[in-house]
Structures are given as C-alpha cells and as structure tokens.
Amino acid sequence: MSFDLSKISSQKVKAIPGGEAVEMQSFWKDQNVAIIFFRRWGCMFCRLWAKELGEIYPILKKNNIRLVGIGIEEAGSKEFVDGKYFNGDLFYAEDKSIYQTLEFKRFNLVSIITSLFWKQSREAIVKGKSLGLGGDLKGDWVQTGGALLVGPGGRLIKYFTQTGPSDHLPNSDILKKFQL
C-alpha cells in the first residue's frame, strides 16, 4: 500500500507537553522517522504498542531514527505521558483531518465490539493486563490508526493502516524496513 506524503506534509500537530505546533514534514526533513498514529491515549492496545516500541527505541535512537507518536486528540494524553508508555516524542492532531487524509478507518459500534473477540485482540488484552497497562474510554474509541516509516526528504518506506484495534506494525518489520 502506498501513500503520497505531500497530502499531509503541511498539516500541523501539537507537541505534548507544551502545545508547540509543528508541520508533519519537519519530522522527515533531515532524518529517518517512525511515526505511530495511536487510536486513543487511553486505549490499552495503544499503550501496549507504545510499550513494545520501547524495546527497539535504543536501536532506533542509536541509528538516528526519530520515534514520534501522534494521537487523534489531546484528551487522555496526560495519563499517557504520566504512565511513561512511550519513549519517543508525542504530539496530537488538532482535528481528525490527518487521520482522514491517511485513510485510517473508523469502526462502528458493532465492529468495535466484535473486534474485541478476535484472537489478536484477546491476546493483546491478556498481555496488556499482565503489564498493568490499564486503559479508559476517554476520547474517540472508534478511530483506527497506523504508522508511517519515512526516510530523509520524505521518502516513504512503509505505510501501515490498522485493520483492528489491536493491530500494529511489529517491531521486527520496523527494524527490517530501516535495514537494521
């Protein structure tokens, strides 16, 4: 699957904490970057993905690959930061336009509840609970997310969209795509 980064390059996200607005293209201007688009800050699956990314953060950092996490809204971000779930830089989108432009789908009530019974979701729930990650229902709980792996100057390496709430790009795939 491919995506034209110019569609989002001038869109802005706000830093957590601080609220400084930056353009998306600033992330990939001069370096490799892994950008994770989380569903919700209070989502246990998102917290689990963030924690798992911590396992490869030292490798990414050593190889000058920036790790960025973006949420669809500010709601719940304080708890996410306080929980120290993510080792990279955090931002939030002021509106849903970035997620819409990236074509991240939205669940409906039936599909979100049904997806919680998928094997992948059940396994993630067990793992998240064993790590004490918790979660809450704050924010937009029907939005999906994904990831962009981008090289310097905006060369798209990987475009990933979630098909379910617990779906995520495995660490091994991220390292492989960055040839690590």
Automatic annotation (TrEMBL):
<keyword id="KW-0963">Cytoplasm</keyword>
<dbReference type="GO" id="GO:0001516">
    <property type="term" value="P:prostaglandin biosynthetic process"/>
</dbReference>
<protein>
    <recommendedName>
        <fullName>Prostamide/prostaglandin F synthase</fullName>
        <ecNumber>1.11.1.20</ecNumber>
    </recommendedName>
</protein>
<keyword id="KW-0560">Oxidoreductase</keyword>
<dbReference type="GO" id="GO:0005829">
    <property type="term" value="C:cytosol"/>
</dbReference>
<keyword id="KW-0276">Fatty acid metabolism</keyword>
<dbReference type="Pfam" id="PF13911">
    <property type="entry name" value="AhpC-TSA_2"/>
</dbReference>
<keyword id="KW-0275">Fatty acid biosynthesis</keyword>
<dbReference type="InterPro" id="IPR036249">
    <property type="entry name" value="Thioredoxin-like_sf"/>
</dbReference>
<dbReference type="InterPro" id="IPR032801">
    <property type="entry name" value="PXL2A/B/C"/>
</dbReference>
<comment type="function">
    <text>Catalyzes the reduction of prostaglandin-ethanolamide H(2) (prostamide H(2)) to prostamide F(2alpha) with NADPH as proton donor. Also able to reduce prostaglandin H(2) to prostaglandin F(2alpha).</text>
</comment>
<keyword id="KW-0643">Prostaglandin biosynthesis</keyword>
<keyword id="KW-0443">Lipid metabolism</keyword>
<keyword id="KW-0444">Lipid biosynthesis</keyword>
<comment type="similarity">
    <text>Belongs to the peroxiredoxin-like PRXL2 family. Prostamide/prostaglandin F synthase subfamily.</text>
</comment>
<dbReference type="GO" id="GO:0047017">
    <property type="term" value="F:prostaglandin F synthase activity"/>
</dbReference>
<keyword id="KW-0644">Prostaglandin metabolism</keyword>
<keyword id="KW-0521">NADP</keyword>
